[in-house]
C-alpha cells in the first residue's frame, strides 16, 4: 500500500460470526469510485466496517480483503489504519484538548489543524475561545453542540487525507444546517 496510490479494494467471502452476517460477498471498488452500502439493521454494514479495520477475529473470517492488491491480514494494524478514516454516526471524542481529538498522535502542524477546522467551518468557534486549539474537551464533548461534535471526526478525516473514507450515517444526530454541510 503506497500513500497516494490507490488501486482499489477487493473483498471476497467474508464471515464475521458463528452464524455469518455476510456470506459469499465478492466486492471490488475501483479507484476514485464512491459507493453506498445500504441495508436494514443487522444486514452486515457494520460487520463490513469492522472487517476492513480488522476489529474482527481473523479466525472468524474466511476469504480475504485486499486494498491495492495487498491482503490486509498481512500488514500491521497501524499501517492498515493509516489508510482508512471513519466518520461514525456517534462522534467519538476523547478527554484532552480539541487539537488532540483532531490529531491524537501529533502528526500534523498547528497550521494543518487550523486548515482542517476551517474546512469544516469550525475555525471561528475555535478562534473565539481563549484556549483555541488547546480547548479542553471532556470525553463526551460537552463543550460542543451536536453539530460541532460531529464535525470533529470530519475534520480528522480531512486532516488525515485517507484514500478510504467510511461514513456511517454521519448526519443522523445533527441539526439540518450541519446535515446539509456534511
Automatic annotation (TrEMBL):
Name of one Pfam family that matches: ABC_tran
UniProt superkingdom: Eukaryota
Annotated organism of origin: Rotaria socialis
InterPro entries reported for this sequence: ABC_transporter-like_ATP-bd (IPR003439), ABC_transporter_C-like (IPR050173), P-loop_NTPase (IPR027417)
Claim: Nucleotide-binding is one of the keywords in the record: yes
SUPFAM superfamilies found in the cross-reference section: P-loop containing nucleoside triphosphate hydrolases (SSF52540)
Keywords: ATP-binding, Nucleotide-binding
PANTHER family: ATP-BINDING CASSETTE SUB-FAMILY C (PTHR24223), MULTIDRUG RESISTANCE-ASSOCIATED PROTEIN LETHAL(2)03659 (PTHR24223:SF456)
Subcellular location: Membrane
GO molecular function per UniProt: ATP binding; ATP hydrolysis activity; ATPase-coupled transmembrane transporter activity
Protein name: ABC transporter domain-containing protein
Chain ranges of the ABC transporter domain: 22-172
Gene3D superfamilies: P-loop containing nucleotide triphosphate hydrolases
GO cellular component: membrane
Amino acid at each position: 500500500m503506497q500513500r497516494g496510490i490507490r488501486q482499489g479494494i477487493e473483498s471476497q467471502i467474508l464471515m464475521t460470526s458463528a452464524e455469518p452476517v455476510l456470506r459469499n460477498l465478492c466486492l471490488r471498488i475501483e479507484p476514485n469510485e464512491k459507493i453506498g452500502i445500504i441495508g436494514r439493521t443487522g444486514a452486515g454494514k457494520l460487520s463490513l466496517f469492522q472487517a476492513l479495520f480488522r476489529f474482527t477475529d481473523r479466525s472468524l473470517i474466511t476469504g480475504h480483503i485486499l486494498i491495492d492488491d495487498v491482503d490486509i491480514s498481512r500488514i500491521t494494524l497501524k499501517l492498515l489504519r493509516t489508510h482508512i478514516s471513519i466518520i461514525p454516526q456517534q462522534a467519538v471524542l476523547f478527554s484532552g484538548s480539541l487539537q488532540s481529538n483532531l490529531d491524537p498522535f501529533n502528526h500534523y502542524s498547528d497550521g494543518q489543524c487550523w486548515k482542517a477546522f476551517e474546512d469544516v467551518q469550525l475555525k471561528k468557534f475555535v478562534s473565539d475561545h481563549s484556549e483555541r486549539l488547546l480547548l479542553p474537551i471532556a470525553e463526551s464533548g460537552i463543550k460542543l453542540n451536536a453539530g460541532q461534535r460531529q464535525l470533529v471526526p470530519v475534520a480528522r478525516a480531512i486532516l488525515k487525507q485517507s484514500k478510504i473514507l467510511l461514513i456511517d450515517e454521519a448526519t443522523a444526530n445533527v441539526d439540518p444546517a450541519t446535515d446539509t454541510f456534511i
